[in-house]
Amino acid sequence: MYSFYIDGDDIKKFMNIFLKEDKFDKFEVRNCQLTTLVTFEIDCKLNKDWFDGEIIRDYCKWKELKPYIFELIKGKKKPKSMKFVMALSAKAAEKIHPNAQVCFINIVFEEDKIGVVTGTAQKEFNLDKSLELIWGERIREFFEKLEITQNLI
Asked: pTM of the predicted model, to two decimals?
């Protein structure tokens, strides 16, 4: 597990990248919760009956959900809180580590701070922590490339 927070000027920079650029577009969104005038909870599991063709994935991509989220939060007042549980696709997770079932990134905006925590799930139980270490390092490098300051928790 790798955890850090973003504060100060980097919050605005991160939110612009997150909501307006394509850097997070390939992540699947497993769940999100937004609190503005009410709390919106979105499951993010695809309704496969809605699509015309066959869909082989189970979850919405950030690219697909982002415009709806942007509409919910735009305005003069910032949201009270936001939480996003995002993950790599199963195929992408397996490229990280052969025993990876899921590689998560949890992003929580609350009280003028953004917390980021990574997590993993393995296909088979194993005491080896290499998957967690590799995934944490990938996320650390990803945020460095975005030039977002990481304040370790």
From this structure: 0.93
